[in-house]
Amino acid sequence: MTAQTPETIAYQNALDVIAKAEPTVAACIKGELENQRSQLKLIASENYASPATLLAMGNWFSDKYAEGIPGHRFYAGCEYVDQVETLAANHAQELFGADYAYVQPHSGIDANLVAFWAILAQRVEAPFLAEQQVKHVNDLSEADWATLRASFGNQKMIGMSLDSGGHLTHGFRPNISGKLFDQRSYGVDPATEILDYAAVRQLAKEFKPDVVVAGYSAYPRKVNFSIMREIADEIGATLMVDMAHFAGLVAGKVFTGDFDPIANAHIVTSTTHKSLRGPRGGIILSNDENLQPFIDKGCPMVLGGPLANVMAAKAVALSEAKQPEFSTYAHQIVANAKALADGLKSRGARLVSDGTDNHIVLVDVTPFGLSGRQAELALQDAGVIVNRNSIPNDPNGAWYTSGVRLGTPALTTLGLKEADMTEVADIIASVLKAATSNTTNAGKASKAKYSLGNDVIDLGRKRSADLLSNYPLYPEVTLG
């Protein structure tokens, strides 16, 4: 009988304990693992965290309140929380070459909100308090407090448009950032679908934003952050970079020099999952010492009590990312994305910007006669998990979309290489070519309903399963 691995013992025992309290939850956890093991995960914002990272989240740290920062908490008994938070921050600083790291944000949205309010506190609140000759907002009169509150809503921001690859948290109306800032969007060149820096500079000069946001969630190219900093400096704005998607490529030294946000921005936000391969959470980095005291006030300014169990998992994942093999992994992510892009192009697919420099491949599915929604569901039928996504000047809007976004971090974690990505491209292309759009009851082309033959579905699932059989997910975990 083969001896069980420590990982198998840990997870099997954990599931047994959970099942005694609520068997449905235990079954769903096990089902999720089985799902992920049987599907080609090409969600650009997802990855597979290590067993050590996952296990670090399920412990007694979850029971502890720790508002404040290490050494300055509002609760007693935080000595071990202080240690893991400090450790995570130190790992982040060393990994990214940053002078400062704040590891409390619960998510990417939280990280962005802390960054926005830190910028406003530095640019708006601190000068106002100095002018009124008080040290704290609680010392302001009601009239002065009303004046300060009103001034917060008069600030301006620019960021990448949603259909060019930007994110809702970069000042768009459905998100709180859009209610906080007066926002204008910059986009891509309509011919090349690549960021137009001259247009960004012109917009900045005309609109004069207080904050220039760079970064993306669905832009398949690199961004020159040195140019973005020049633009921000020319108008006296703060440059904030959201590197949530490509943090792993920064950590792995794929993006360096002009393309390294840490070296060029005033403040950088990120998630710790996605290409960084850690737990779901956020992080903020900065080399601007004037901003750092305001970032430290993220709790209670924006955040609730920090999640000490997740900060412990961040420390584990950031430690893993400091190892030499992580840089090899990060470079392979991009090599795989380029191979996937080439494979799709050679099979007749049109790619936004005609390729990729990072982990993202954005496919325009309209030449296949499909909406993004139809393509997403058809690929899922065949065992390929992607997400629909807008493309520049998308005629189908943000719900149905005209594209699908593909990302290579997760499959690269499994160990797939360029030749495997060519097979993935062939599976995807075969499904998209075989799927057809249905009509609505009114006789119009549907944006949601589609048809795909069972033979195509079965073959797609078999090919996906055959490929995954060579790269098992969590092979060290065998559940009964």
What do you see in this structure?
This protein is an alpha/beta fold. The protein folds into 2 domains: 61-321, Aspartate Aminotransferase, domain 2 (3-Layer(aba) Sandwich), CATH 3.40.640; 324-468, Aspartate Aminotransferase, domain 1. The protein has 20 helices and 17 strands. The strands form 5 sheets. A 7-stranded mixed beta sheet has the order 4-10-9-8-7-5-6, with helices on both faces. A 4-stranded antiparallel beta sheet has the order 11-12-15-14. Strands 1-13 form a two-stranded parallel ribbon. Strand 11 and strand 12 (360-364) form a beta hairpin. Helix 4 runs parallel beside helix 14 (308-321), helix 8 (197-207) runs parallel beside helix 9 and helix 15 (324-345) runs parallel beside helix 19 (418-434). The radius of gyration is 24 Å and the shape is globular. The two termini are 14 Å apart. The mean pLDDT is 95.
- Kindly provide the name of the CATH class of the largest domain: Alpha Beta
User: What Rg is obtained from the alpha carbons, in whole angstroms?
Assistant: 24 Å
At the fourth level of CATH, the homologous superfamily of the largest domain is Type I PLP-dependent aspartate aminotransferase-like (Major domain)
Q: Which sheet architecture does the biggest sheet show?
A: 7 strands, mixed
Number of strands: 17
What general outline do the C-alpha atoms trace?
globular
Structural category is alpha/beta
CATH architecture of the largest domain: 3-Layer(aba) Sandwich
CATH fold-level name of the largest domain:
Aspartate Aminotransferase, domain 2
Mean pLDDT: 95
What ranges have pLDDT less than 50 throughout 5 or more consecutive residues?
none
The number of helices is 20
User: Could you give the order of strands across the largest sheet?
Assistant: 4-10-9-8-7-5-6
